[in-house]
Design goal:
alpha/beta, 2 domains, five-stranded mixed beta sheet, 10 helices, 12 strands, Dihydrodipicolinate Reductase, domain 2, Rossmann fold
Length: about 270
């Protein structure tokens, strides 16, 4: 599998390159960076501290999609939707780890998935995807007398809130209860808010330091609490999961999938 990495010289990009190099059956096709990057023309494997791969860092995403079997994208929403269009144009598979996407962005991605295989997940790690599955199951077993609160903490540089993973956990809880998350989500509390509304799914966002990602789903009722917690200590888990997803796309049907499809966690 020839795997391309957009934004390959950044912190996450370098981890993705390292994960590709370490994966049997995967070949680094190349990577992209902004025209102002000092790494243009260099080997992305060397930039990531690996042995030379023969690939190059270029500025043209269209060219990267043309030479790759699958491209991995952990960038920003504006870039990701353009990459989805390129994936559809070239029939190149795409793995999306970008968060903060709007409903309009999602519509573009869904349209692109009619022409190729796209894996999209708010979090690529095995542990988090197990948490998604467990959260949905527990929510389906407990009625709305149990309050659901989701607490997340990330490093101070994160630009979106709540995190994509927190929202993914919220969607899992809502699916378990067979409700629409948008109808029950309570993301902001400030001042005299009144009592908690029965059936709501609350979110609390913390930012500080260099925290990679901590997430807890709390099921609370009078007298007891049940909590599901995942803590990430290294971004390598996201890179490893993304490359697993990239390899899974080989021979897969066209369409939009997530990491629970990749990991066989769906019933």
């Amino acid at each position: 599998m020839k795997i391309g990495i957009v934004g390959c010289a950044g912190r996450m990009g370098r981890m993705l390159v390292q994960a590709v190099v370490a994966t049997e059956g995967a070949v680094l096709a190349g990577g992209t960076e902004m025209p102002s990057s000092p790494f243009i023309g260099q080997d992305p494997a060397v930039v990531a501290g690996e042995v030379p791969s023969g690939a190059k860092i270029i500025t043209d995403a269209d060219e990267l999609f043309a030479i790759s079997d699958v491209v991995i994208d952990f960038t920003i929403p504006a870039a990701t939707i353009e990459h989805a269009k390129l994936a559809a144009k070239h029939g190149t598979n795409l793995v999306i780890g970008t968060t903060g996407l709007s409903a309009d962005d999602q519509a573009i991605i869904a349209e692109a998935a009619k022409s190729t295989t796209i894996i999209q997940a708010p979090n690529m790690s095995l542990g988090v995807n197990l948490a998604f599955a467990i959260t949905e199951k527990v929510a389906s077993m407990l009625n709305d007398d149990w309050d659901i609160e989701i607490v997340e903490m990330h490093h101070k540089h994160k630009i979106d809130a709540p995190s994509g993973t927190a929202l993914g956990l919220g969607r899992a809880a809502a699916a378990g209860r067979k409700v629409d998350l948008d109808a029950v989500a309570d993301k902001v509390r400030d001042g005299f808010t009144g009592e908690r509304k029965k059936g709501d799914i609350g979110f609390a966002t913390l930012r500080g330091g260099d925290v990679v990602g901590d997430h807890t789903v709390i099921f609370a009722i009078e007298g007891e609490r049940f909590e599901i917690t995942h803590k990430a200590s290294s971004r390598v888990i996201f890179a490893r999961g993304a490359v697993t997803g990239a390899m899974w796309t080989k021979g897969a049907d066209k369409g939009l999938f997530d990491m629970q499809d990749v990991l066989g966690l769906k019933e």
